[in-house]
Amino acid sequence: MAELLRVENLCKDQILNNVSFTIEKGEMVAVMGPSGSGKSTLLYNVAGMDQPSGGSVFLNGEEITKLSEDEKAFFRLHKMGFVFQQMNMMGNLNILDNILLPAVQANRGGKELGKRSRKENRSSKTQLRENAAKLMQKLSISDLAGRSITRVSGGQLQRACICRSMINHPEILFADEPTGALNKSAAAEVMEEFIKLNREGTTILLVTHDSKVASRCSRILYLLDGNICGELKLPKAEGSMEKQREETVNKWLMEMGW
Ligand SMILES: Nc1ncnc2c1ncn2[C@@H]1O[C@H](COP(=O)(O)OP(=O)(O)OP(=O)(O)O)[C@@H](O)[C@H]1O
Ligand SMILES: [Mg+2]
């Protein structure tokens, strides 16, 4: 497999200390660790949403950490997708318009995103709506397109957030506790969607407290006091092996001091 993301000696004040790892195309990697160990900080610094105090991040060989703010914004909009525990949907827009928002922004281009946002990245409105419809169908929320975000369940809203994160065909999806605000069954449903996207080729880096969620990933990184102090490789997720994978992960987490 080809390398997609490379993180080299990433530092953020006293929070991250020389964190290094790589992610290959098509992987689904979980970051675990105690509260306050720096998981969210790591995700935001890797994704260019925060400015690290040292180190480098490369996506497809291009150094993100060297880019200007405008160029980073371009990168985030076109090459990265984000899903958060707090879903950050716009209250005045319905589900469909929330999903379309990053695509509208990408289409608008304009000077706020720097020179790279040009015509070749623009899609027609029809194409965008078709793409949104496909995504909504895939995540089983087609019938909610015109609904207000206040009139859907937490699990449905998170599935809409996943559609929004995928609308610009990102090369990598970052998720911070995407199932953290959901009940057990909604969390399981949302996790199934991540697995589906991953099977279809989307590379995913997600932070989770949930060993069941992590056990569905291909690799787990354990962060402690701003350092990666352990790594567990798992075979590609297969339904029948679920229990065994969970046991392996729980045993490993105990060894890590979880
Ligand atoms: N904006 C900030 N300014 C200063 N310190 C911060 C900031 N954000 C987080 N921290 C500190 O950095 C450390 C790591 O925080 P971070 O949110 O990355 O942890 P986390 O592993 O994601 O925790 P949790 O599991 O609770 O979400 C904590 O000690 C936190 O208090
Ligand atoms: Mg966090």
Keywords:
Rossmann fold, four-stranded antiparallel sheet, 10 strands, single chain, alpha/beta, binds adenosine-5'-triphosphate, binds magnesium ion, globular, 8 helices, six-stranded mixed sheet, 258 residues
The topology string of helices and strands comes to: EEEHEEHEHHHEHEHEEH
State the separation between the terminal residues, measured CA to CA.
31 Å
Q: Approximately how much beta-strand content do the residues carry?
A: 15-25%
Oligomer: single chain
Number of strands: 10
The percent of residues in helical segments reads 25-40%
Which radius of gyration do the C-alpha atoms yield? 18 Å
CATH topology name, in short, is: Rossmann fold
Structural class: alpha/beta
Shape: globular
Any overview of this molecule?
- This protein is of the alpha/beta class.
- It has a single domain, classed as Rossmann fold (3-Layer(aba) Sandwich), CATH 3.40.50.300.
- It has helices at 39-46, 69-79, 95-108, 125-138, 154-166, 184-199, 211-214, 242-255, and strands spanning 3-12, 16-24, 28-32, 54-59, 62-63, 80-84, 172-176, 203-207, 219-224, 227-233.
- The strands form 2 sheets. A 6-stranded mixed sheet has the order 6-7-8-3-9-10, sandwiched between helices. Strands 2-1-4-5 form a 4-stranded antiparallel sheet, covered by helices on one side.
- Helix 3 crosses helix 4 (125-138), helix 3 (95-108) packs parallel to helix 5 (154-166) and helix 5 packs parallel to helix 6.
- The chain is globular, with a radius of gyration of 18 Å.
- 41% of the residues are buried.
- Adenosine-5'-triphosphate (ATP) binds next to helix 1.
- Adenosine-5'-triphosphate is lined by residues 15, 33, 35-41.
